Fold this sequence. Notes:
Elements: E1 3-8, H1 14-28, E2 31-36, H2 41-44, H3 53-78, E3 85-89, H4 94-101, E4 107-111, H5 127-135, E5 139-142, E6 155-160, H6 164-172, H7 174-177, E7 182-187, H8 198-208, E8 214-219, H9 225-236, E9 240-244, E10 247-250, E11 253-256, H10 258-266, E12 271-274
Parallel strand pairs: 1-2, 1-4, 2-3, 4-5, 6-7, 6-9, 7-8, 9-12
Antiparallel strand pairs: 5-12, 10-11
Amino acid sequence: MKSILVHLDASPRSAIRLAIGQSLARRHGAELSVLYGVVPSMLACTWGAAEGMAVAAPMFADIDREQLSRARSTFEAAAVPGERMTWIDGGSTPHLSLTRRAPYADLIVVGQFDSRDPLTGGLPPEHVSATITDTGKPTLIVPCEGAVDDAQPRRIVVGWKPTREAARAVACGLPWLRGATDVHIGSRQEEDSSGPDDAASLKHWLQLHGVTARLHTHPLDSGDAGVRLLALAAHTGADMLVMGCYGHSRAREWVLGGASHTVLNAMSLPVLMAH
């Protein structure tokens, strides 16, 4: 991991994402790019097309400048002499700017969507899921509430099934898994019982790749896998959840899968996802 891209908005929670990005960059000797990207206030306003918007334009411009100033202050307060940390202004198309930078990053760090925080800059609810699917890069999502330790997570939950999404997520999670003391694998055995034991096979693969943590297996009950994984994380006191991001196409529109949707909405710990 040599290039990390952190998304910044005007919310105070951005400072936590930035701290996590800095901690990872120091640990891996990586360069850190910080992209400020919010939807312009006039576009984010639900009555943006109403008559008289031209009169309100200067007010919206002031809001945008204030948001940018707050985010820049967060960046400058975190800057450490000698560290490689670059500021990028995403302009009026934050998602496009993020996807254009993503091919040159090994990890993207974003914040969980929070409709109650007016300082995020009018980011749409699909901002996080679109980042994961459109960039094709492993994405670390930081929860919108609670304290988050930016140190190496010690207890990690892995949501596992033998799919390309889960396999990619676990492979991308190796830098964290190798430093963990306990890894809890939550999985459901496939209906085809003639195949290998999926959790046992994953445990063997992890050990081959230098994961020395205690490995625990937890069969997941039927129902929403996202709910079960979050419950397992709470029960084990996990510091991170690693899982694939799932979805399907419906009439040319990408629809987030049930477990992914549940986790992104109800998560209370950092989640590493890959699609």
